[in-house]
Structures are given as C-alpha cells and as structure tokens.
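Journal club prep — side note

Before the paper discussion, L.F. wants everyone to see what a predicted structure for a comparable chain looks like in token form. Sequence:
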Amino acid sequence: MRKLVSAIAIGSLVTSTASAQLAADSNAPIDITGDAAEFRDNVAIWTGNVRVVQEDSILIADRLEADINDEGDFETITATGSVRYSNGNEAITGKRAVFDNTQRTITMTEDVIVTQGKQIMSAGAVIYWVDTGMVKFQPAPGQRIRGVFYTGDEEQT
C-alpha cells in the first residue's frame, strides 16, 4: 500500500509540477500522454504512442523515460522507438532522442532526418539547441552528412 501511495504521489508530481522547456522560452505546461505509465523513485516511464506537447513543440515516441530531480523538474527525457520532434519550423526524426534540460539540447541518433520546409538533411546524429535553433550534424560511422536544398526558383515549381 505504501508503494502505491508513493507511486500516486510521484505521478501527481510528474503531471502537475514537473517542468522543462521543449519549447524555447516557455513556461507552458507539458502535456504527456501514452498507453501506459509507470512511476518509481524519480523516474517516470510512458509507453505506447507517447506524445509530449508544450506549445508548438511536439515529441512523439514509442517509449519515454524521464528523470526527475527533487524539485519536480525534468533533468533528462529519453525517447526511443520511432521518435519525432517538431517545433512548427523544423522536424527531426530518428530512433532515439535525449533531451537534456541543463544543456537545453535534444540529441537525436540513428537514421536522423531533419526537415525545414522542402530542405532535407540526413546524418547519424544531430544535436539541436532548443533555445537558439542551432543544429550540429554528425555523420554515422563510415558515412557522410547529406543535404538537399532548393533554390527559390526550384521551390516555386
């Protein structure tokens, strides 16, 4: 019974006061949904059709694990499976993403594709700085980074 009460307390902590910023300069609440959720110690795990929304930023994954500090803030969020992050301007897809609230970065790995309008780039890994929009591309071992860019004339046709 005590473990159940602790789990419910952690669950309410996670859903009501946990904070991070998936959206730049936002204090908006983070809405997390999934088919199942489990809470133990300072870890929250959502599985099945996981969707995290904060303003225009959306993170979708098969599984999400969040490490929460004693103040109730997310320290890291690890998303695995078919992962997609979008913020209204860019979209990044891959198989694994780690959001680091201290560094304010999302590191996406494994078959990464970044799209911005018609522009497309692929890499082994991408580090995305949430607050500035800066993106650093890293190649997969033995491969190169690829980008397809359209000029203004090509975009209109």
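L.F.'s comment for the group: DSSP finds two helices and ten strands in the chain. Keep this in mind when we get to the figures.
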